[in-house]
């Protein structure tokens, strides 16, 4: 495996590799905001959390790593995120499957989560590029990705079939290794302020 499956810790959050024991806490987190109702997002319904976690554990066998996000201020699991499409040979991965309870929004949680994930890939694993993908119409997600400092690479039209049968246009963003120092400074500045 290229990326080590280990916890990552910052000032505000701890990222813990996902496990079946996290299902109940994730059900509570996803109920805070009911984001599974958003047609353009891929957020699990509480009743589907067991399958969601089991699928994440299966994907770990291919080198993908899913984490629960623990808000250290409350010691409560507030969401999840993961590395996926991990490509050891080309030293790149995507970051996604990220969702949070409403209680974590407008807090340092997402900023520090992304800082930890990016720092781990660029500084510990010498990544060349990191990708972020989201529904073209998910403006909240696109704004958050752009705020991190990622650049839009393009839009994959009719890229995925959504659970409701509609076709998803996928906005693809990336951060490349040469951009990482500026992106890191930006994220650290946001956390300090």
TrEMBL record:
Record domain N-acetyltransferase: where: 15-151
Name this polypeptide is given: N-acetyltransferase domain-containing protein
Species annotation: Pseudoalteromonas aurantia 208
